[in-house]
Structure formats: structure tokens, C-alpha cells
Design goal:
Elements (H helix, E strand, L loop, with lengths): L4 E8 L5 E4 L1 E7 L15 E2 L11 E3 L9 E2 L10 E2 L3 E3 L9 E3 L3 E11 L7 E8 L11 E4 L5 E7 L12 E11 L7 E10 L13 E5 L5 E7 L2 E11 L15 E9 L4 E9 L7 E3 L23 E3 L8 E2 L4 E2 L5 E2 L5 E2 L13 E2 L6 E2 L11
Parallel strand pairs: 7-10, 8-10
Antiparallel strand pairs: 1-10, 2-9, 3-4, 3-11, 5-10, 6-8, 11-12, 13-14, 14-18, 15-16, 15-19, 17-18, 19-20, 21-22, 23-28, 24-25, 26-27
């Protein structure tokens, strides 16, 4: 649609001489007919000029390469008959001047046209008449297939909801949009999508912290729910638990976006961006084992024996760790009160550690681990 084209007809007279023919250009949608030759003559209408184009799917056009009513040359036929010059027609005309064609003579006619954005049927048929009156025989009728570029409806990232991550693993996040191609959904070929933090930009390099690049080539994008001229384009990313949060801290004020692009069989394409959403801060940790003090005699301590455990940040923001304890009991009369247990983020000897902190069962102790935001899974 919007392109300028020229359609050329070869007309041969194998009967009696005809005189004063005004060859008018007409069009019709092919519809469900198997070919343009099978389209009903009653469905044809004349191609309007640019000035009166209105809602017509095709109109006459002008071209800098031709002059209205200039003589045509013999380009299509190679017969035993004699060629007579026809005409090349451009807007505002849509028909030739009066032309005579004797028996066994042939001519060629050319018309400058443009399909418009009002087109619905991708297949148009073109023929000429004698100012509205059918010629005797149409051995071939010109068929024009329009190339439509695909077009996005609105697209969304995570259905427009803020992204909540899952501690220590990935969360499946979708970018989706409806794609329409008036050549039919089977014309849709490839698609890509980028889910990214706005500060990284749509052309970002893949990075689990801020940029996920997806495509039909790796099956992370697919066309689903296809019918008629439309499909849903769905692209999914396994977003890591440490992806950058945008609701607070370093990247507050930024947002997460999705950029989607689709291409059809004719290399036509369209692209769209989803409105921004927040990726929420995730505070999470894992402790890998219990702490076992071992066996203690009455009135003894652990000395320089330091049972340990590893604490891992499974979120997307730096965290500290608070610890509180409980009294230890053997189930009988023996117990170790909470405040007789000491903790530090370094090794120590029980009686010699002045900076160790005593646990409390009521007031959490901040260890000062200062666990950084992970940048890798």
C-alpha cells in the first residue's frame, strides 16, 4: 500500500475491426474466487483518480517516468499481427483516448496506479473495458497481490504487573502482543524481543542483571493462538533472582521495558514497546547447615572450636543479617542459656573474644556481614 506501480495490458483483435474504443481501467477484489479470470464481471468498478480516491482500495497515480496519454511501445506480444501504438495513462485520467484496432492488430496499454491503505483483500484483479462495456474475451486478467507489513497491537510486559522474583532461582516473565498481517498469519516468519532495564537500553548486550534477548530462533518467542490474520506473539525470559530492582536503591527511577519486533516472509516488519513496570526488591537468604557446638562438659566452653554455617544472599539487593537465639536444652535439667552463646563473622576463642556478640532471645543481633547483591546465579 502506498507504492506506485504500472500495470500493462496487451489487447489483440482477432475479429472484425473495432473503432473508437476508450479503454477504461477497472478493478475488483478477488475474494474467494480461485483466480482473477473467475471473478464475476459485475464486481468490477473503475479505478478513480487521485482527486476522487476517497476510500477506494486503489487509485490512479502520477509518475515522473511517463506522460499522460503518451504512446506505448510493443513490450509484451510477439505475434504475427501488426502492432499499433496504445497509450500510457496516469492520474487524473483512468481511460485512453479513442483507439481503433483493425483485424489481426494488437496494442498495449499501461496505467499508473497506487494501492491505498483502505485495501482489505490482499488480491486485486485488473482489466480494461470499452468505457464500461466488456470486451469479448479475457484470456488473462491481471492479478496484483499486495504485500502487507505486519503490525502490532498493544504489547505488555508481565501483563502490566510489577515483577516479583523468586529467591535463588528464575522467574518466568512474558512479553506479549497481538500481531496482524493482512497477508494471513502464515506470512509471519520471525520475531525478537528484549526485556531490559531502561538504563541498559533496548540494544543491550545479554546480561542476567539487566538484559534478556529472546527470539523465535531459540524458541523463546513463539506465535500462538493464530487465526485469520492475527497471532499472539509470546516471548518468555527466565529472569534470575538477582536481576536489578528498580523500585529502590541504585536504579530507583528506572523501569523494566520490553521491545518487540516481528518480520514476515517479505521482510516487512513492525516493532513496539511495552509500557514500563517495576522489578521489585527481593531480600532473601539461605543458610546451608545447622550449627553443632559438639559435646560440652558442665562449666566448660567451646574454646577455639568454631562451628560455622554459610549464609548466601539469594536476593537482588545488598543485605545484612540479624541473628537471635534460644536456650539449648538436653531435654532434662541441663541447659545453656541464650546469652551464653556467642557469635561473630570471624573465628575466635570463646573466653578471649571481647568483640563477639552474645545472642539474645528477644533482641536480634546484626552481624555486619554486608552481603553484596549477587551478579551471577
Amino acid at each position: 500500500p502506498g507504492s506506485t506501480a504500472r500495470v500493462r495490458f496487451a489487447i489483440e483483435n482477432t475479429g472484425l475491426p473495432i473503432t473508437s474504443q476508450e479503454f477504461l481501467l477497472e478493478y475488483a477484489p478477488r475474494g474467494v474466487a480461485p483466480s482473477c479470470e473467475a471473478v464475476s464481471p459485475a464486481t468490477y468498478t473503475s479505478v478513480p483518480s487521485q482527486a476522487s480516491c476517497g476510500t477506494s482500495p486503489v487509485c490512479m497515480q502520477t509518475s515522473t517516468n511517463v506522460t499522460n496519454n503518451e504512446a506505448s511501445t510493443d513490450l509484451l506480444f510477439d505475434t504475427s499481427g501488426d502492432f499499433i501504438a496504445g497509450e500510457i495513462i496516469e492520474s487524473p485520467s483512468n481511460k485512453t483516448n479513442l483507439i481503433d484496432i483493425d483485424q489481426n492488430e494488437y496494442t498495449e496499454l499501461e496505467y499508473v496506479i497506487t494501492p491505498t491503505t483502505n485495501i482489505v483483500d490482499e488480491n486485486l484483479c485488473f482489466r480494461v473495458t470499452d468505457n464500461g462495456s466488456d470486451v469479448d474475451t479475457y484470456l488473462s486478467v491481471a492479478a496484483l497481490q499486495l504485500r502487507f507489513d505486519p503490525a502490532f497491537d498493544s504489547v505488555a510486559l508481565n501483563s502490566g504487573l510489577d515483577i516479583s522474583l523468586t529467591p535463588g532461582t528464575t522467574t518466568l516473565v512474558y512479553a506479549t502482543g497481538t500481531v496482524t498481517d493482512l497477508n494471513g498469519y502464515i506470512d509471519l516468519l520471525n520475531a525478537t524481543a528484549t526485556i531490559y532495564r531502561s538504563g541498559a537500553g533496548a540494544s543491550c548486550t545479554p546480561d542476567n542483571n539487566n538484559c534478556y534477548v529472546l527470539s523465535t530462533a531459540d524458541n523463546s518467542c513463539s506465535f500462538t493462538d493464530c487465526s485469520g490474520n492475527s497471532c499472539t506473539l509470546s516471548c518468555s525470559a527466565n529472569v534470575q533472582f538477582h536481576a536489578d530492582a528498580t523500585d529502590a536503591d541504585t536504579y530507583e527511577g528506572q523501569e523494566w521495558l520490553a521491545y518487540m519486533e516481528v518480520e514476515d516472509q517479505s521482510a516487512g516488519y513492525d516493532f513496539a514497546s511495552a509500557p514500563g513496570i517495576e522489578l521489585l526488591t527481593l531480600r532473601a537468604l539461605a543458610v546451608d547447615s545447622l550449627i553443632n557446638y559438639g559435646s560440652l562438659s558442665v562449666d566448660s566452653d567451646t574454646g577455639s572450636f568454631n562451628p560455622t554455617t554459610t549464609v548466601t544472599n539469594l536476593g537482588n539487593t545488598p543485605i545484612n543479617v540479624d541473628v537471635e537465639g534460644t536456650d539449648l536444652s538436653d531435654g532434662g535439667d541441663s541447659s545453656i542459656p541464650t546469652n551464653q552463646q556467642k557469635v561473630a563473622n570471624y573465628t575466635f576463642t570463646y573466653n578471649a573474644c571481647a568483640t563477639c556478640q552474645q545472642l539474645s532471645s528477644s533482641t536480634p543481633i546484626t552481624l555486619g556481614l554486608n552481603l553484596a547483591k549477587p551478579v551471577n546465579p
